[in-house]
Amino acid sequence: LPFSTFTAIFIGLQRYTYPTVVAALSRALSMAAIIVTLLVTGSLVKMAIVLAGFNIVTALATFIGWHKLASIRAPFRLAAASRIHVSRLFRYCGVLSIWTLGGLFISGLDTLIVGHFDFRNTGYYAVAASATNFAVMLLGSLVSPLMPATASFGVVSTHALRGADN
In whole angstroms, what is the distance from residue 37 CA to residue 10 CA? Predict the structure, then answer.
């Protein structure tokens, strides 16, 4: 969840390629790993561990990409961050964090619930859910470039309206 901030930075800077590639590779590889894990072990716990591992690796890959981007644009020192900066960061990225947490509950707990009530078919559900999550992620990646552009149009039109009123 805290690493969603780094994805938001890429989106805010309109640099979509890196987070999209990381997310797509993560989804595709995690789906394959889940299939293999379930075929080999049939364990819901091992499947959850594999999925958690991919989530951690994806978060770290996003952080590393952000760190490279930040080191090119401006050196980053954690000690230079003030309480005001941290507060502003949480305000700006709070909605994305809530969205990510909601997604975690939807796409994480659903498999657990299916596993509890119908363990025999959990593998099939997990594969279908991974494919669906991949499609949702792909659609989000296609739509996300429109958000900053739309926001900038809103700012320009609001500024133009205010200028007309004066």
Answer: 32
